[in-house]
Design brief:
Blueprint lengths: L2 H11 L4 E2 L2 H6 L14 E3 L4 H13 L4 E4 L16 E4 L6 E5 L4 E4 L5 H9 L17 H7 L6 H4 L8 E5 L5 E5 L11 H10 L8 E7 L27 H15 L15
Parallel strand pairs: 2-4, 3-4
Antiparallel strand pairs: 1-2, 5-6, 6-9, 7-8, 7-9
Length: 272
């Protein structure tokens, strides 16, 4: 790799946030996809969108590939540096920037672990549905890039259904912000949808996320069930309820009918 490029990038992100030894590069030459591996030229950990923009300008000048990488848990070889280039890590960008409980949105940096986000919103009585199997390791930035789903995806949708806005760095180094907290915006083209078509699902060299405001519907039902309510003990899978079972279920139906409508979500109760 051109030493001039290394020096320029080192000046932008700092020497301690650059990995260039063979052993270090080898660790980022593959992801969870079998039989795909290429060695990158450099691995960096920028601290903000501005540093990413400056790095991309340098790479654009020298015609080098950019490979944004979360935790490398994807199964589509999305973070394999096929043609070498610079791998961008987001381990320094893992903060919650804004939590708006009233508007049911949260703005986060791409490096935050998916499970940490879910745990945070649940501690406030809210619910973030997408649950990829790698959520204990995967990052929100990677979830958005790969449009991750999970077991709850069939009922609640996948990651793209909860992206309200994005901040991305374009291939020329410009920073673009799309969308926001509005549920409806008719002031022009929906650039978040355009970003979904051109960036989220495109080749990794054309997309770098800085944060993703995500929809968070409230957790319905789980905290609304009266503490004295119990499931009928004489119901079995594959068997119809006995008359006694109907007598047991009837009181439960009466208080379920009196519950207030779920606020802030068009979803039904999640499968707890």
């Amino acid at each position: 790799m051109n030493k001039t490029v290394i020096e320029q990038i080192k000046h932008i992100v700092g020497e301690k946030y650059i990995k260039s030894s063979t052993a270090q590069l080898l660790a980022y030459s593959y992801d969870a996809t079998a039989n795909f591996q290429r060695l990158p030229d450099l691995v960096i950990s920028p601290g903000n969108a501005e540093e990413i923009a400056e790095v991309i300008k340098v790479c654009n000048e020298y015609k080098m590939s950019i490979i944004p990488r979360g935790s490398g848990t994807n199964l589509a070889a999305g973070t394999v540096p096929y043609n070498g280039g610079v791998v961008i890590l987001f381990n320094r960008m893992d903060q919650i920037l804004n939590f708006d409980k009233e508007n049911l949105t949260i703005t986060v940096q791409p490096g935050i672990i998916s499970e940490n986000l879910c745990t945070f919103v649940e501690s406030h009585g809210l619910f973030y549905p997408p649950d990829p199997s790698s959520m204990r390791i995967s990052t929100i930035g990677g979830n958005v890039s790969e449009n991750s789903g999970g077991l709850r995806g069939l009922k609640y949708g996948v990651t793209k259904d909860y992206v309200k806005g994005l901040q991305v760095v374009l291939p020329n180094g410009d920073i673009l912000e799309t969308g926001g907290k509005l549920a409806k915006d008719v002031a022009g083209y929906d650039l978040t949808v355009a970003v979904g078509a051109c960036f989220i699902f495109s080749t990794p060299t054309t997309k770098t996320l800085s944060y993703s405001p995500l929809n968070i519907p409230k957790i319905p039902c789980r905290n609304a069930i009266p503490p004295d309510a119990q499931a009928p003990s004489n119901l079995a899978v594959g068997m119809g309820p006995s008359p006694r079972s109907f007598a047991t279920i009837a009181p439960r139906i009466s208080w379920l009918a009196k519950l207030p409508p779920i606020y802030g979500s068009y979803f039904s109760c999640p499968p707890f």
